[in-house]
Amino acid sequence: MDENPENRNNARIRYKAPVMIENLKAGIIYRARMLNYSNHGLYFETDDWLRLGEEVFIGIEYSPYSDSHDTYECLRAKIMWRKKLPTSHFKYGYGVRYTIDYDKQKSRDSSLKIVEDQRKHTRRRYVQDLLFSAQNKILKGLAKNISPSGVFIETHHRLDEGRVITMVVPLKRGRTAKIKGEIIWSSPNGFGVKFISIKK
Questions:
Q1: Domain that holds residue 82
Q2: Assign residue 69 a region: left if phi > 0, alpha if psi is -120 to 50, beta otherwise?
Q3: Contact 31, 60 (CB under 8 A)
Q4: How far apart, in Å, do the first and last CA atoms of the chain sit?
Q5: Total domain count, the chain
Q6: Is 175 helix (H, G, I), strand (E, B) or coil?
């Protein structure tokens, strides 16, 4: 039996985009597809079973909340309902409600900005060209956001999950850091890396 206690006054807007769902307690990341959103929540589909009431982070590669649709955003949300999908490509559909008040996050130009990220290691916007080595080649990418535990790299190079890469990341005052990391998810526009070791 499907459970759907979410009563919405806000109309949802149809919007398809690949998303990554991170379980806050288990630290597990799932692949998913977002199909619609509102100011207060969104709907996504995935093959993975998630508990009602569980809090997750949702990484949206092409955020509809930004002025620029190539922006990666990470939202904290609570799973409100779940249903089985017998005719979909995915097994389950989920409705989530954001756990922060986005009406208070509007910028001066009245566009909605998601600026709060309450993960264990907060990500911050970090746009910087960088080099990384993989498959015995030196490749180029663009870091889009970073935290003490990982980074999202935008690149046209396609690399598989589980691959270990070495990055050279620019720091302040002309210094660099050599970082070894593992690709934990990938998409057509880039991949997320979890740091393994850092040498400055």
A1: 13-105
A2: alpha
A3: no
A4: 54
A5: 2
A6: coil
- Cβ-based neighbours of 69, under 8 Å, separated by 6 or more: 62, 63
Asked whether residue 100 is assigned to any structural domain, the reply reads yes
What pLDDT score was predicted for residue 31? 83
- Record the pTM: 0.52
pLDDT above 80 for 151: yes
Assign residue 22 the CATH number of its domain. Answer: 2.40.10.220
Angle at 86 between CA 81 and CA 87, to 5 degrees: 115
- Cα distance between residue 146 and residue 152, in whole Å: 7
* Alpha helices, DSSP H, located in the chain: none
Q: What is the pLDDT of residue 51?
A: 87
Same domain, residue pair 22 and 90? yes
Q: Taking residues 169-179, report their average pLDDT.
A: 78
C-alpha triplet 109, 97, 77: angle, nearest 5°: 90
Whether the CB-CB separation of 83 and 25 falls below 8 Å is answered with: no
Q: Which residues pair with 165 in a beta bridge?
A: 181
Q: How confident is the model at residue 112 (pLDDT cuts 50, 70, 90)?
A: very low
- What does the alpha-carbon distance between residue 59 and residue 140 come to, in Å, rounded to a whole number? 23
Distance in angstroms (rounded) separating the CA atoms of residues 126 and 22: 21
